[in-house]
Design a protein that fits this description.
- By secondary structure, this protein is mostly helical.
- It is about 60% helix and about 0% strand.
- The chain is built from 6 helices and no strands.
- Helix 2 (about 30-45) packs across helix 4.
Length: about 140
């Protein structure tokens, strides 16, 4: 079946005039909390508990356990958690150095000197001999002769 150019143009115009179909995009629970994090934290500042916020969200169709809600909120702001952890590690390291007045290498050396396991007698090694008559065919190393 052949179609005329006039019919093709008319089909094209009709296709151009079709309205846009709105497709609802499904979002995960984590993404939802991430999007609403500012409002959730604002509600917390106004005195709402995690239990009350969780119940409110459940009423709106988003069922989240309280520990899950807290976890998702913590994951939305990882920079704050990471920087605090790094600061704590640096402070702990400098505090340890201040207490001993030693450099880090000196601290390691003194720990090794005081380690009683290092001073123990070395363990004796038993050698296992091959049974009589056992032979192995090993090709000679002709390259390094």
């Amino acid at each position: 079946m052949k179609i005329t150019m006039e019919k093709i143009k008319m089909i094209g115009e009709k296709l151009d005039d079709l309205p846009k179909i709105e497709v609802e995009q499904n979002v995960s629970k984590y993404e939802t909390v991430k999007i609403l994090a500012e409002q959730i934290l604002s509600a917390r500042k106004r005195g709402y508990t995690f239990e009350q916020i969780s119940e409110f969200l459940k009423g709106e169709g988003l069922e989240l356990a309280i520990p899950t809600l807290k976890s998702y909120l913590q994951r939305t702001n990882p920079k704050k958690r990471t920087s605090r952890t790094k600061k704590q590690k640096i402070k702990q390291t400098t505090d340890n150095m201040d207490q001993t007045d030693q450099k880090p290498n000196e601290q390691v050396a003194s720990k090794l000197e005081n380690n009683t396991d290092m001073k123990a007698e070395p363990q004796k090694t038993e050698f296992i001999t091959e049974p009589e008559g056992a032979m192995f065919d090993v090709p000679p190393d002709t390259k390094n002769i």
